[in-house]
Amino acid sequence: MTAMSLDQLVGALRGGVISLLSDGGGGEWRVSGAELLDCPEALGTIAPGHLLLGVGLHIADRDALGTALRTAADNSCALAVKCPTPPPPEMSAQVGETGVPVLAVDPQVPWTRVQRLITTILAARETVAEPGGGATGGDLFSLANAVAGIVGGAVAIMDTQQVVVAYSNLPDQPIDETRRRGILGRRVPEDALADHLDREVWVSDTVVRRHRPGDLPRTAVVIRAGEDVLGSLWAAFPDEAAATDCGPTLQEAARVAALHMLALRRQVDADQESRDRALRHALEGRSGQGDSPGGVRLPAVLVGLAEAAGARGSETSWEAGTAARRRAALLRTLDLAVLDGRSLGYEPAAALLDDRVYVLLPTPGSGSVSTGVLLDHLLDRVRHSLHRSFTAVDSPVIGTASALVAARRDIDAALGHLREQCAGPGAYHAEDLRPELVLRRLVGAVREDAELRTGVAERLRSHDAEHATDYCATLLTYLRHFGDVAAASDELHIHQNTLRLRLRRAEQLFDVSLADPTRRLLLTLELTALARQSEPTTPD
């Protein structure tokens, strides 16, 4: 790829994604590529001039920062770190001593996106530098008209989400029903998707001819910037003979279109950042009062994702870098959720809060699949791509800001309940778990408010602690089994007569009335609250 200076790279990544902390103090540094600094043993193969992305690097750790700076210096590379601007004074001093160029990345921007943006910008710059690649034309519609006039066909340009971003509109162009519906709907018609997404088209480095029954013959070429696919350009012709000898023109048009598509992608990313920021503020209650949260599209469905019960057990807590890898997996899950949502016709917003990913899917979605199918697809991709298992819970349709906050509370409670129950990974519905969520709230209220308790459970607990008895567990198990002595004794691993004896003694010692429905209900809630209080807490 063609190298570019640090100043040019910072200027190309508009929107404050990257800023220059140190220019290295010695001449103009030029960047020719980007690599993740998460596998030191692979650095021997990296040529000088790359930008090393400090994944998992905490700038407060002077030793780790020093190691990263030495690695960059030894390989004649620049370093990118996530830190606030301006940086802490001690960091500036440490960076200045090494002579290594250092860039600061916005902490909210995922590393994978930074790498993709840098790679595509460098690739697009290389395209412009190639002979014949300097003509940028006007906008994409002007480009489509220019190409259509040269090849004698009708041109359409689509992005990777199958959205028609531009098309030619010259007089007397050939047109068929698929093109007409695609232009009116601004996306590839559903019945033509299989042909549009055919593998032959998207892996080819040259033009590909396609002729679907009932349609005009077409020629397609993929629009790329380096290895990054940005979209495709299609030309429809009145007959097969007219489609010949247009390959070089379409390939040249694809190179020019890549520059425009890259600019469009930057705009889409900026819009995505705005939506994500609005969602994060709304979920944190920072979007202001009222039912119109700025920047959040409603009505919508909110989805919460967390690692499934037992998934964290695969990594021991003492293992170095475990927390950083978990955080990286969550960020990549967030990226996948946005990409999947876009590819299926939604305009999602996503936020990572604590250890949970939240995705807002506006409704009605223009996608061809339901929210449930999208979630199943996302969980499958995460399992195969990241080797992680997640639990997802979706809300009913939300129409107001207050309902959005309530939906997050329900989802958090549902995820906490599923973790406590060691539920398997997969997609769940908050409405299906409504009884469990109501019970959690009742138990929480009983635990926090002494006026909602009779005090019997506390007396039982004190007696158990003082005399090494087990009345709390015995009564709670019996009540959960609705008075089924056989089932309760099996769970407690005691004889049925032993259980009956304990129940009689509890009634005698603590004035427990197991025949009174009201007292049974209150005792169940109080004992459950005590049991939950002694368990490890999970965020709701």
Mean pLDDT, all residues: 81
CATH topology of the largest domain: Alpha-Beta Plaits
Measured as a percent range, the helix fraction is 40-55%
Strand order of the largest sheet: 2-7-6-5-4
Please give the radius of gyration in angstroms.
30 Å
Major sheet: size, sense and barrel closure? 5 strands, mixed
CATH A-level architecture of the largest domain? 2-Layer Sandwich
Q: What is the number of E strands?
A: 17
Number of domains: 4
Query: In DSSP terms, counting alpha (H) and pi (I) runs of 4 or more, how many helices?
Result: 18
Poorly predicted regions: 126-138, 313-318, 536-540
The first-level CATH class of the largest domain is given as Alpha Beta
**N-to-C span:** 48 Å
Structural class assignment: alpha+beta
Strand content: 15-25%
CATH level-4 homologous superfamily of the largest domain: Reverse transcriptase/Diguanylate cyclase domain
Form type: globular
Describe it.
The protein is α+β, with helices and mostly antiparallel strands and 540 residues long. The chain has four domains: 126 residues, Udp-n-acetylmuramoylalanyl-d-glutamate--2,6- Diaminopimelate Ligase, Chain: A, domain 1, CATH 3.40.1390.20; 125 residues, Beta-Lactamase; 160 residues, 2-Layer Sandwich (Alpha-Beta Plaits), CATH 3.30.70; 85 residues, Arc Repressor Mutant, subunit A (Orthogonal Bundle). It contains 18 helices and 17 strands. The strands form four sheets. The chain has a five-stranded mixed β-sheet, sandwiched between helices. It has a five-stranded antiparallel β-sheet with strand order 9-8-12-11-10, sandwiched between helices. Strands 14-15-13-16-17 form a five-stranded mixed β-sheet, sandwiched between helices. A hairpin with a 2-residue loop joins strand 14 and strand 15. Helix 14 packs across helix 18, helix 15 packs across helix 18 and helix 16 packs across helix 17. It is globular and about 95 Å long.
